[in-house]
Amino acid sequence: MTVNPVRRPAGADIARAAAETPVGRLFLAATDRGLAACTFEPESAVIPRLDRAGSPGGPADIEALDLARRELDGYFAGRLTVFTVPCDLRSASDFSRMALVELRRVPFGSTLTADELAQRIGRGRAVRAIGNTLATNPLCVVLPCHRVVPRGYPAEVGTHPGGAAVKRHLLALEGAAA
């Protein structure tokens, strides 16, 4: 893993790394609060978004980046079912943050629908907003948006930031695919 700190205008660092996985390359970034990105997006799209979110100005949590890499390796090797890396969700809206935190509670190998996720956060009519949150999940795999499936699952797996094939792979890895 390569860790390259980048100076932010506010004086805080963003540590970054790439993780090569069975579903493709993931870009990882950590701030002073923990893992802020685990995404298929390019670094050039992620860093400006993290800069706009702001930071209290502390040094990047390189340990969180290292932990994320080890946990991703364990997950893809079938040895890890729960991610413990601290997550920095300050770039998400309040609504998205609620939905993403609730995603972390969906057990390995389980699925639910967007309707069910909306109900769990007390926003039963916000299914479209749930879909937008899942499509822009800044911490895919770690915050398991792949576990949210359409009503017709397994015939339809729905969308995923990495694409339908990635979602199918992750669900199969967890034994959730029929």
UniProtKB/TrEMBL annotation:
Which InterPro entries is this protein grouped with?
A: MethylDNA_cys_MeTrfase_AS (IPR001497), MethylDNA_cys_MeTrfase_DNA-bd (IPR014048), MethylDNA_cys_MeTrfase_DNAb (IPR036217), MethylG_MeTrfase_N (IPR008332), MGMT_N_sf (IPR036631), WH-like_DNA-bd_sf (IPR036388)
Which is an annotated GO molecular function term of this record? Answer: methylated-DNA-[protein]-cysteine S-methyltransferase activity
Q: Which CDD domains match?
A: ATase
Q: Alphabetically list the UniProt keywords.
A: DNA damage, DNA repair, Methyltransferase, Transferase
In this chain the Methylguanine DNA methyltransferase ribonuclease-like domain maps to: 18-89
The keyword DNA repair appears for this protein: yes
Please give the catalytic activity noted in the UniProt record. Answer: a 6-O-methyl-2'-deoxyguanosine in DNA + L-cysteinyl-[protein] = S-methyl-L-cysteinyl-[protein] + a 2'-deoxyguanosine in DNA; a 4-O-methyl-thymidine in DNA + L-cysteinyl-[protein] = a thymidine in DNA + S-methyl-L-cysteinyl-[protein]
Biological process GO annotation list? DNA repair; methylation
Annotated ranges, domain Methylated-DNA-[protein]-cysteine S-methyltransferase DNA binding: 95-176
Family annotation (PANTHER family): METHYLATED-DNA--PROTEIN-CYSTEINE METHYLTRANSFERASE (PTHR10815:SF5)
The cross-references to NCBIfam families, in alphabetical order and at most eight, read: ogt
- What is the designated name of this protein? Methylated-DNA-[protein]-cysteine S-methyltransferase
